[in-house]
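Teaching assistant here, posting this on the class forum so everyone can see the example we discussed in section. The complex has two components, and the goal was to see what a joint structure prediction looks like when all of them are supplied at once.
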Amino acid sequence: MPHLRLVIQSHMHLKHSLPYITSLCLLLVAACTAPPQPKLLTPQQIYSSPPAYNYPINNPYAATVIGVPPGMKVDYSALPTPIDKTLVLFKDRFIPEGFWYEHGLQYSELLQPKPAALIYIIAGTGADSHSGTMLTIADMLYSAGFSVVLLPSPTHPNFIINASGNFLPGRPSQDAQDIYRVMKRIDQQVALSTKVSHRMLIGYSLGAIDALYTAKLDNEQKSLNFSKVLLINPPLDLYSSMQTIDNLLYRSMPNGISDADRFIKSTVQRLSSVEQSNDALDFTNERLLIDAYTEYKLGDNRLATIIGINFRLAAVNMIFTADVMGRDGYIFPKNQEFTTGASLNNYLGVALRTRFKDYFDQIYTEKYRAADSSLTKQELIAEGNLEFLAKYITQHKEIGMLTNADDIMLAPGEYDRLVRLFGKNVITFPNGGHLGNLALPAVTYRIVKFLKQ
Amino acid sequence: MLNSLHISILLAVLSSLFSCSAEQEPPIPPTRHFTDPAFKAYADQEFAVYDPAEGVNKQIYKFNAELDEYILLPVVNSYIFITPKFVRTGISNFFLNVGEVTNFANSVLQINIRKADITLIRFAVNTTAGLLGTFDIATSIGLNRQTEDFGKTLGHWGAGPGAYIVLPLLGPSNVRDTVGKIVDYGTFVFIIPKHIQNSGPYEVVAYGLQPIDLRYSNSFRYYSYGSPFEYEFVRYISTQLRTAQIEKEKKE
C-alpha cells in the first residue's frame, strides 16, 4: 500500500508544471495523431489493374529470409483463418509413447460457402499447414474465390507418423502415393460440407515435386482430375538442391554444427541490438529482420547460414522421426522404446550431424534397394530430377511453373533448364530468392491469372 | 476450491513422475552412434543447458502440454468466441498495466532510472487517460513497455540461471527465475491492499480471467513445430533469449 501511494504522488509531482487535465488532453491528441499504418492493397484491388512488379530486395538470401516487407503485402485481415482438421489413416498403427501428442494427420481447410474450385496445396520441406508460406497461399487463393486444403509436407514428422506408407520420406513417387491416399480421403470429407466444381493442385519448394508426381499418379488413376497444376519455386534436381541448401550452413559456421551455439548467440545479440528504443526482445516483430538487414547487422553469410540451419533442422526432424517409426536403428536404438522421459541429448548431437545426403546414401538408398534390387542409386537420384518427367510435362498443358531468376535453391544453369522444361507455362521474376516475393500483389496476380485462364 | 484444485494438480504431476520406469533391455547400438569417434567429441554439447532433473522436467513438460490441449486451449477458444477482439485487447492491457508494479519495483532494484521513469509515467498515463489501463496510450506516444521481473534483477546483479526447471502450468524456467517469480508474487501481494484482494470481483479477475488472458496472449503452441526434439529446442531457446535480454539490459 505505501508503494502505491508513492507511485501516485510521484505521478502528480511529474506533471505539476502543466495543469493535469491539459496534459491528459495533449497525450490523447498525441495518441490519435500517431503515424498512420501504411495503406495495404485489398484483395479486390489486385485484380482491378495488374499491379507492377516492385520487389525491393535484390539480395536472394535476404529475400528468402525476410520475404515481402510488411507495407507491401495485401491486406487479408478480413479473411477467416483456416480450420484445423485431423485425419486418421492407419487405425492400427503403433505410435510410440514419445509421440503421445500425435492424434492423426493434421491439415487445414478454408472452404467457400458457395460451389467453387478446390485447390490442394502441398507444403515444402519440413513445413506443415501452419507455415507462413502456406497461409500466404491460402489467403491469396481464398480471396480469389477458391476453396483450399492445406497439406503438410511428407517430410514433416506429423505426416511421417500418421500418413507415411513406409517411413522412408523424400522419394517423390512414394510420397505422391502417400499424399494421394490422403487427398482422396479428404476429398470425401470436403464433399460433405461444400460443393466442389473441379480441383487443382499447387506445391512449393519440395512440395512442388510432390505435386507433379501426385498429378501424374492422378492422371493414371483419374480420381481427382486436376484442371491446373502449379509448381512454385521447385528445385530442378532434388538431390542437387538438397546439397546446395545444406552447404549454406557452412557459410558462417566453417566447422559445421559445432559452431551453432556460437553462431546463434552472436545472431541473437545482433538482432537485439537493432531496436535500441524497444526494450522487449520481440522476435515476432515483423520489422525486426528487415531492420536488421537494412542496418547491416545481417550479412550474406549470416543469412545463408540461417537458411542452412533451418534446413538442417527440418532434416533432423524428418530423419529421426522416420528412424524411430521405421525402427531402422539408424540414430535411435531399434530395440528401445521411444518415450517422453528418455534423454535425447546424445541422439540430438548425432542427428544434428546427419545431413540429408547421409540419410539418402545410408538409409534411403539401402532400404529402397533392399525392396527392389534392380534399382540403382543413380536411378533414385534421377527420379528427383524434374527432367525425368520432361515428356509428361510437355504433354500436359495444365502444368505451370513459377520461379525466380535468383532462387538460391538452383545451382548455376538450373534456372535456364527449368524454364526451358516448362515451355510456355512459365511465370518468372527477376528477383525474390526462394519464395521471398510470393506475398507480393504482382505475384499473386500472376498465380491467380494462371489458375483462372 | 482453489486449494483443492492445486492439490489435485500437484498429485497428478507427482503420480505421472513416478509411474514410468519400466525395465528395458540394453540398447543395440545404432548405425550412427554417439560413441563413434566422429560424434563422441560433440555429442551432448549441442544446445546444451544444465538440466539435472531432465526426466522429471520432461514429464512436467508433457503434463503442461496435456493441460494445454484438454483444458487451457479449449477455454481460450471459447473466450475468443464469446468476446470481441477489442475487449480481449483491453483485458490484456489491463493486466499488463497492473504488472507495471512489478516492472517498476525491479527497475528500481536494478537502479535503472530511465526504466523506472518510463514505467512510472506509463502507469500514470494508462491508469488515467487509458481508463484503468485498458488502453495502452503510453506505447502509442512512444513510451514502450519496460518488462522487468525479479529473475532479471537477480541476473542483472550477476546471478546465473542455475538448473533448468519446467514449472507446472508456467512452463520453462530455471532456479533463478523461479525464485524471481515467487518474490514478484510476494511483492505484488504486499502492495495490493488486503481489502481489495479479499473482494469477490478481485478473486474472479485474478484467478479466473488472468490465467485465461495469460494463455490467450501467448502464441506458443505445444508440438506445433512437429519436432521430436521440441523439449531440447525449447529448453535451449528459452534459456538463450532470457540470457540475451539480461545481457542487453546490462549494457544500457
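For the discussion questions: Chain A has a mean pLDDT of 87. The first strand of chain A starts at residue 83 and ends at 87. Think about how each of these relates to the inputs above.
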